[in-house]
Structure formats: C-alpha cells, structure tokens
Amino acid sequence: MSQEVQHPHAETIETLSDAVARVMAEADDWRRIMSLDGEETLTVYLDMKSPHAYIAVRPTLEVARDYKVKIDFRPYTLSYTGMGISKSVENSERRPPSEESDRRARMFYAAARYYTKLQGIPLRSPHRLLDVTLAHRCFLFAKRQSLEIPFVMSVCLPGWGSGWRDYEVESQTQLRDTLASVGADLDGFEEFVGTDGPAEHELLKYVEDAHANGFVGVPHYVFHDYDTDRQTGLFGREHLALIRSKLAARGLARNENVQAEFSHVWRGPAT
C-alpha cells in the first residue's frame, strides 16, 4: 500500500507516488541546469544511502542555475561502521556500537526529516542497512549520458520515501529499469557496472580524490578558492551560502538579480 506524505505547501495529504511524480516533474529543469555553460567547477560527493545527500541535491543545483558553474556530482560510498552507525552489517541489521552511537544515528535521521518536510520531498527511516555499491556504479553510467540527477532522484524519492521498502537498491534489474525510465541508452550497461568494470575503478579514483580534498562526509563540496589559491573541501549543505558568496565575488552570477544569500531552510525552486 502506498504511503501518505504530507506536502508542506498544501493542506492535502498526497500519496508517495504522487510526491515522487510531483518532484520528478522538475527533471527537465535539472537537465537544463546541468547543461548550462560554466567557467568554474563545483565538485559534489554524494552517497545515495545518506538522507543528507538526498536533501542536498536540489539546493545544490541552484548554484548552477544562478552562477556560471558546472557541477560535477560524484558518488562516494560511506561505511556504516566507519560512521559509527553500526558495528556490523551482517544481515543488513543495524547494530550500534553503543547507546551514544545509537542516539547520534537517530538524531541523524530526525534532523533529515525536518529538512525533507521543508523541501516537500518524502522521507522515511530505512528499515535496514543498505548496500549502494551497484547503485553508485549505475550513477556513473547515468552520468556518462548527463542523466545522473534524474537517475539519482528516481531512485532516492521512492527509496527514501518508503524507507527503502519499495525500492530494491541492490537489484540490478530495478536499477537498470530506472536508467531506462530516465532515457538512458543501456548499450554496454552490464560490462560497465560489472565486477572489475570501469565503474568500479572510477569509484575508487573518486575516493582518492575526495580524501585528498579533506573528505569528512556527504555532501562534500570541492572548489577552487581564489582567496587562498587552493582547492577547498567543505562538508555539509550549510556551506552553500559561503560557496555562492565566493562565486559572486568572482563575478560569476548569471544575471544581476542573483543573490548570494541562500537559506538552509530552502523550500524548493521558485515557481
């Protein structure tokens, strides 16, 4: 049965399928934004099993909408044990190392719920630990066709909206169907995402690059800071306003109406 989702901009209750359709209606705009010219690059690392990466996708796109910047979205696979969320990933059941770790993990999802409600995107706590390795390989397959954002959101909206009960993120068949649904050419798909295929090697290279730029967690933003003349890495969506201010100082605004200020409680693209 489809879950009900409270849309913050309306008094009515919408189903999960309606919520997914409403947000996916932005897909053409996402493609347009990603195709815009850019004089600088903002690299953004995401993990599809992180609700805070899910929350960051759409407000991050606003940077490219407003500034002459190309956004390079990259997958990064976090470790549950490394994050302290679980001491074991056996049977996909969460086993917190301590009561304190359990409390922190619960607050991690509680905070995410506030922000997804503001954006009008669905979120339900996951019923199990997730293996997104294959999904991230598919992310790269979509990226080669400039379809990474429609793909990521086509996975994450029903996935996070149902607590990953209605989307089998480890299923190659379901992921392949999602790629087809966003218009991907599937020629060479199995070879690209297979063990020891190009996607696996590309993901390992991304890990090295992320760590070289101070990776702490997702979303992780990397850009050239001309004030210090070096590559800078910042962890967290709250840094979008700072990034925008630096781009504004570089004279990269797409028009005179662009404002550097950006709220952490962003509610969605202007209509």
CATH topology: Glutaredoxin
The fourth-level CATH homologous superfamily is Glutaredoxin
Number of strands: 6
What is the gyration radius calculated from CA atoms? 18 Å
Integer average pLDDT: 90
Sheet with most strands: strand arrangement: 4-3-5-6
CATH class designation: Alpha Beta
Order of helical and strand elements: EEHHEHEHHHHHHHEEH
Helix-and-strand structural type: alpha+beta
Number of helices: 11
CATH architecture call: 3-Layer(aba) Sandwich
Task: Describe the fold and architecture.
The protein is of the alpha+beta class and 271 residues long. The chain has one domain: Glutaredoxin. Helix content is 46%, strand content 12%. The chain has 11 helices and 6 strands. The chain is globular, with a radius of gyration of 18 Å. The two termini are 31 Å apart.
